[in-house]
Amino acid sequence: MLTMEYAVKPGSVAVCFVLVALLWTFPLQHAIAYPFVFLFFAAVMGSAWFGGAIAGFLAIALSTFIITYFFIPPFFSITVAKDSQSFLAAFILCAIAISIVSSARRRSESAVRSARDLLETKVQERTAELLRSNLEIQESTRQLRMLTEAIPQQIWRADASGRVEYCNQHLLEYIGGAAESLRDESFFSILHPEDASQFRQGWEAALAAGGRFEVEARVRGADGGYRWFLVRGIPQRSQDNGIAHWYGIHIDIEDRHSTQQRLLSAHEDLSRFSRTTSLSEMAASIAHELNQPLTALATHAAACRRWLQADPANVSRASAAADMIVQESTRAANVVRRVRSLLSKTDYVREFTDLNSVILDLAQLLRDDAIRRSVSIHLRLAEALPKVEVDPVQIQQVLLNLAINGMEAMAEINGEKVLEIGTQLQGSDEIQASVTDHGPGFSERVKSKMFEPFFTSKPEGTGMGLAICRSIIEAHDGRIWSEQSEQGTMFRFTLKVSK
């Protein structure tokens, strides 16, 4: 193998090119002066180009021998005349340079050709890999889309900025539109106006933090009606831990919400029945317990009058009867106090409380009830309010009673139902809270008696709500009153600021 590579092959190439040069020299030497110089230079160049450096040097040796023997005097001899030695030396040096340059150029082009072939091979391999990867990605995307279409849930996908890119068929069928109808801000248009703000705030917070997103909201269907959905958004992260996509799912919880509303309504009915029963029991207990002392009072009073009307008047017996009247009156008062204590708290509770926090908790508590009644709750809370020393449970109960009264007052109106709850600083030592509805208002007769116990303008009312509110506020050294506003009825009460 080595003999072939470094001897036979280079020798064959050199002999071939030199022989061709020699054969062309004989006919051309009669037409051109010294044609052998160019032909043998060409033979050296061709040998070095096609056979490499070894072939080039073999061609130089053969060419030098042939030129010396055939073309340099004395002819047909390997002896070189003195005046031709410089010519022969120049030929040999030039032939060597041509051989080196030609073989180097050949190696360079071979290297470039090999590099190009290798690059083309790599490009083809890389192209094939990319094609396979694209096909795998397309297949994965197709399978994922088939999976999302097979899952009986509403699913959507958004890019890293939160722009919706894809919606499955279940979601599109529910909203009755195309995926383009949910691009950018249009996505929020399918939400109920009262839920859109909360949804937007939660979604923007999730985009900023890169965390999970979950909220309950009403989504409009193709028929224009709204259903409750639990909306969850989960980020899909890339290899560099950046967010590549967001995947969202809508879980229908309409039945659960309807059940909660029915339970809430049943709870209210039960609470109303319980309050009515408690009042009935209290009234029956008072009537039963007071029967005997009142009877005794009537008996002793009649006896006292009889002793005083006697002639002469029996003052000692009348005085004794009067003493019995006092004893029975005290007993009756004790009976009333004992029955009243059954409905009142015996512990005295006062805590430093932020009234705005109490109202915010109340708004959350009223949310489902307000939705069921189609009432929007607007909060107008003053900032940086000082704290008040109150029983927060009792104050929240006052606000709850006033809010429920306001929502009930708007039950029959056809316009917008708005309940406003606000706070403001009144002077330097009082905080004023207000609850305003958009109902029809009340007459002056009702206004003059609304805080009296057992007075009510509602067929199902007990007449104790506002009376209890007044008792609680007055127990906190505050004031409560009502007034007509441009919107409807406004209830206000004040609380002392803690020093």
Descriptive tags:
alpha+beta; 499 residues; Beta-Lactamase; 4 domains; 12 strands; rod-shaped; five-stranded antiparallel β-sheet
Helical stretch tally: 12
Class from helix and strand fractions:
alpha+beta
Determine the mean pLDDT: 78
CATH architecture of the largest domain: 2-Layer Sandwich
Q: Report the count of strand segments.
A: 12
Assign the CATH class of the largest domain: Alpha Beta
Question: What percent of the residues sit in helical stretches (DSSP H or I)?
Answer: 55-70%
The biggest sheet amounts to: 5 strands, antiparallel
Strand content: 15-25%
How far do the termini sit from each other?
109 Å
Can you tell me the CATH superfamily of the largest domain?
Histidine kinase-like ATPase, C-terminal domain
Low-confidence stretches: none
Say what the CATH topology of the largest domain is: Heat Shock Protein 90
Strand order of the largest sheet: 2-1-5-4-3
> Radius of gyration, Cα only, in angstroms?
54 Å
H/E topology pattern: HHHHEEHHEEEHHEHEEHEEHHEE
Would you summarize the structure shown here?
By secondary structure, the protein is α+β, with helices and mostly antiparallel strands.
How would you portray this structure in words?
By secondary structure, this protein is of the alpha+beta class. It folds into four domains: 2-119, no CATH class; 151-252, Beta-Lactamase (2-Layer Sandwich); 258-341; 351-496, Heat Shock Protein 90 (2-Layer Sandwich). The chain contains twelve helices and twelve strands. The protein has a five-stranded antiparallel sheet with strand order 2-1-5-4-3, with helices on both faces. Strands 7-9-10-12-11 form a five-stranded mixed sheet. Strand 4 (226-237) and strand 5 (243-252) form a beta hairpin. Helix 2 (35-51) packs antiparallel against helix 3 (53-71) and helix 7 packs antiparallel against helix 8 (315-341). The longest helix has 69 residues, at 82-150. The mean pLDDT is 78.
